[in-house]
Amino acid sequence: MIGLLTILLTACGDRLTATNLPTSETSNLPVVQGRISEVAPPALIQELRPSLERYAPQVTILSPLAEQVFDDTQVIVKLQVSDLPIFQDDTLKLGPHLSLIVDNEPAAAIYDLKQPIILENLAPGTHTLRVLALRPWQESFKNDGAFAETTFHILTKTGKNAPDYNLPLLTYSSPQGIYGAEPILLDFYLSNAPLRLSNTANEDNNLQDWRIRVTVNGDSFLLDTWEPIYLKGFAKGNNWVQLEFIDGQGNKVENEFNTSVRVISFDPSYQDGLSQLVRGDLSPTIARSIVDPNYQTIPTPEEETPVIEPETSIVEEENPVVEETPVIEPESPIVEENPVIEPESPIVEETPVIEPESPIVEEKPVETETIEKVEETPEAIESPLTTIPETKEINEPASGIQPPLEVEPIPEPQNNSEQKITIFDRVQQTLNRFQLASSPAEKDIELPTLDPELFSNVERS
Questions:
Q1: Which of 36, 212, 322, 354 is the one with CA 20 to 30 A from 376?
Q2: 321: Cβ–Cβ under 8 A, 6 or more apart, which residues?
Q3: How far apart are CA 214 and CA 61, in angstroms?
Q4: Domain that holds residue 146
Q5: 242 class by beta-carbon count within 10 Å (0-12 exposed, 13-18 middle, 19+ buried)
Q6: What is the mean pLDDT of the chain?
């Protein structure tokens, strides 16, 4: 549908000025002068550019359709692009994108086709949409299919903003907006332009000798090649740039949009992503994220590596923490507290507490004040063999009582003696104990005596 011219030359010396035109036309064109001059592209852009050379984007306008008439001033635009990933880097806010131009107004950057694109408050009449596929630094792709256009109408058709597709069409791309660094890109797109066969004038077809006249702040120069160039010498503040499509005789080729002008601003303090890219403030690693969306994951481990280094120093600080192991030593005295068992030894020494039981024996005579207890003693005699274990415990403290006159517990230390006594002697001692506890009035009572022969058959203990 649209013929394209794809002649790309790299030598800056091939730029044309008015002196390259036929002598008859030399006086009609200005010569390059003033502060503006062409320089090489920024080094970082030259390094990134090959990353996108493999793409040949194909742009399509799905809506509005060609020659479509709308009964509203609002139009929804739907675009499609293939063979080019469009995205915007989160940090630098740059990336491959589409440039949407309504009529000859400044372009809008489209980074996400999933978001709705709505044109509002369009004036009644004819309008034309043009869409370009751009690199992150605003340079347009020049392949066939990287450009699309369509003409539609609001309420009615008019002759304005309707280019002739049989004639060459110039689309202004860059510069536009605010810039914080030089050089500044100058770029454009040509549609339906004939192939240039030579640098000489062709009287039969002046269109083959087309040129682009560039004017910056009143200083003009000519281009006969279709390629981006970088310029420096812009003044701080506002600057204006104009592009014109002319033939071999220096005459403007009349068609809509073949003459376009933009006002741009140059502020060296501006710190957007493009300005950092042009200045070279970015490392190639970070800058590569604007040409490859998947490359964003690669710089992250590189940024983490310096974080690992301080972590190693933290590990070194933990070594003195290991030296604090002597803290275990205070725990050793805790082990020495085992002598706590020693308090149990005084418990063993408390065994002499048994001695207070001896006063209990003294209380027994108090209970024997009655005579009835004396009368009961014969009953205990009836079963001396069965009560032997009990009398053994009672009489052990009294085994050493040799003087019958005292019942004091003094003889108790003599319990350790190994002297053996007969059952008869024990019974006799018991009787003597009761005899001592009796009152003087009862001394006349005669107690029955036991015949030793009764115990002659009993073994001595």
A1: 354
A2: none
A3: 30
A4: 12-294
A5: middle
A6: 73
DSSP-assigned beta bridge partners for residue 100: 108, 131
Q: Which of the pair, 427 or 452, is modelled with greater confidence?
A: 427
CA angle 358, 361, 366 (to 5 degrees): 140
Q: Is the pLDDT of residue 284 over 60?
A: yes
Q: Which residue, of 239, 262, 294, is where some domain finishes? A: 294
- Of the chain, the end-to-end C-alpha distance in Å amounts to 142
Q: Is the peptide bond before 183 cis (omega within 30 degrees of 0)?
A: yes
- Which run of H or E residues covers position 189? strand 184-191
Measured between alpha carbons, how far is 205 from 454 in angstroms, rounded to an integer?
Answer: 171
| The model's pTM | 0.59
Return the amino acid letter for 275: S
Number of domains the chain is built from: 2
Does residue 305 belong to any structural domain of this protein?
A: no
Give backbone dihedrals phi and psi of 62, rounded to 5 degrees, phi first.
-80, -35
Indicate whether 122 and 205 sit together in one domain.
yes
Question: Which residue, among 326, 66, 323, 3, has the nearest Cα to 192 in the 3D structure?
Answer: 3
Confidence of residue 120 (pLDDT cuts 50, 70, 90): very high
Residue 363: partners with Cβ closer than 8 Å, 6 or more residues away: none
Task: Identify the domain boundary among 276, 294, 312.
Answer: 294
* Separation CA 360–CA 407 (nearest Å): 12
CATH assignment of the domain containing 61: 2.60.40.650
One domain for residues 287 and 363? no
In order, the DSSP letters of 63-95 are ESPTT-EESSS-EEEEEEEESS-----TTT---
Contact (CB, 8 A) for 257 and 173: no
Is 327 within a domain? no
Residue 300 and residue 294: Cα distance in Å, rounded? 12
- Residue with the bigger pLDDT between 81 and 322: it is 81
